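Recall that a protein's primary structure is simply its ordered list of amino acids. Everything else, from secondary elements to tertiary packing, is in principle encoded there. The following example makes that idea concrete.
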Amino acid sequence: MLKINNLHAGVEDTEILKGINLEVNAGEVHAIMGPNGSGKSTLASVIAGKEEFDVTEGNILFEAEDIAELAPEERAHKGIFLSFQYPVEIPGVSVTNFIKTAINEGRKAQGLDDMPANEMLKKIKEKAALFEMDRKFLSRSLNEGFSGGEKKRNEIFQMAMLEPKLAILDETDSGLDIDALRIVANGVNKLKSDNNAVLVITHYQRLLDYIIPDFVHVILDGKIVKTGTKELAYELEERGYDWIKEEAKTV
């Protein structure tokens, strides 16, 4: 589904990603871990097409198509979803209207008519229940006055509604208490299928107790330096990153 070859990217004259290679197949969950400033969020942003980052070398293939020239919204229409680390507030636009617009723009890009209102309402009710969301929440302005946990839950609700092929969760666990973390993780697990894939970016092993990864990758200084199973996340929790830094120096 996703194939990244020798990806170099950065901002202006600062190189952040220094040769990322990664393959993600449908049905898989991959976790990206690493210390602050290692390039985790940059990788997520570059896959999603955030325009402040320049790709200087390498390519990103999504379902065998090079997406380098596609705008963020075009990538979204093809099925790439990014849950933001810091979701923005959009006063005056309700959660429900935002979701309706996003879904119908995606359908338009695929040559489909708008989703019928009754079908949309049924889907909103079903997904809101999945995340234990109060119906009043859906009429509020998007993220305005939301707590950190509400913003993150709303992001995953959007993911559930949009049903992307590739979901990238950028530190979705930050700011969540254990109950909200469980609800969000259970929702993600219910949405997983053989036809989609999840890329989880996290600092902490605790999220991976709920969303079980098939692979854990460690990024240091803009490169993936180690890949393992969920047990690698436990080892990082226990030992930190210094041993990986030493290991990387000897390679």
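Helices lie at 40-48, 72-78, 95-109, 117-130, 148-162, 178-191, 230-239, 242-250. The mean pLDDT is 88.
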